[in-house]
Amino acid sequence: MKINKYKKYLAFSKAGILDGFAYKFSALGWLLGDLVSIIILFYLWQAIYQNSPTETINGMTFKDMIAYLIFARVSTTLIFSSSSFWNIGFDIYEGNIAISLIRPINYRYRLLASSFGNFLSTAILMFIPLFIVSIVILNLSLGIGFPELAHLLLFLVSVVLSFVIVDSMNFLIGEISIFTNALFGLMIIKNIILSFFSGSLLPSSFFPDWLNAVLRFLPFQSMVEKPIMILLGRLEYMDILMTLLIQLMWVVILSVLCNFSFNRLKKHVVSVGG
């Protein structure tokens, strides 16, 4: 009964997949952009470590740092593939959100299903090719071993949870556009905050202690840093279990917040004919 209840959202996931493949040449451009970013990161941190008086910086060797940054860059492509921010923003601008309210479907679940379609198309078009190339290059150039199968599987579970967390954050921030009418500005602020605090640009060991203390009570570290630490084998299995439980907790909390805030948002929806 419950499965049939959610079957209607599969159509939106399929549409998300087809949408991703329709823009496959655009994905190729992003793919090349990511490769260039990875090359720049490599030479940037090589210069930093060559001029460092010690072989480790904040507990990380050069190999650790390069492996972390490359996998973080590749995984960010997949984890941040959510489309909910733009979908809710455009629906608000164009007045489509009023029509969505009278449809017999949950608007939040519809956007999540559509984003999941993008997640799958991004995995096929960008993540898997980049991930395989990164593993091979890291092994041949720096002698970094392949990830263990158990860590790889747990990493994939963690990435799916991270994606749902990011999608929920996108939905919550996208809702603000109904008050600001500044979707592009919100996008820039959102991307900077999420990229910096999620560990996409730097591991949190480089942050000051007071900031790390604050981040422990926020969902950011569950987005990118924790999945990468699982993949690199830097967490014990008990720590991995705790990480997955914390991610699941944030999925539940943010899902409740999304439904609560959207129910409040409905009262502010004003459109022609709405």
Automatic annotation (TrEMBL):
The keyword Membrane applies. It holds the Pfam family ABC2_membrane_6. InterPro entries: ABC-2_transporter-like (IPR010390). It comes from the Bacteria. Keywords: Membrane, Transmembrane, Transmembrane helix. The chain crosses the membrane at residues 21-45, 65-90, 111-137, 149-166, 178-202, 240-262. This is ABC-type transport system, permease component. It comes from Acholeplasma laidlawii (strain PG-8A). The lineage of its organism: Bacteria, Bacillati, Mycoplasmatota, Mollicutes, Acholeplasmatales.
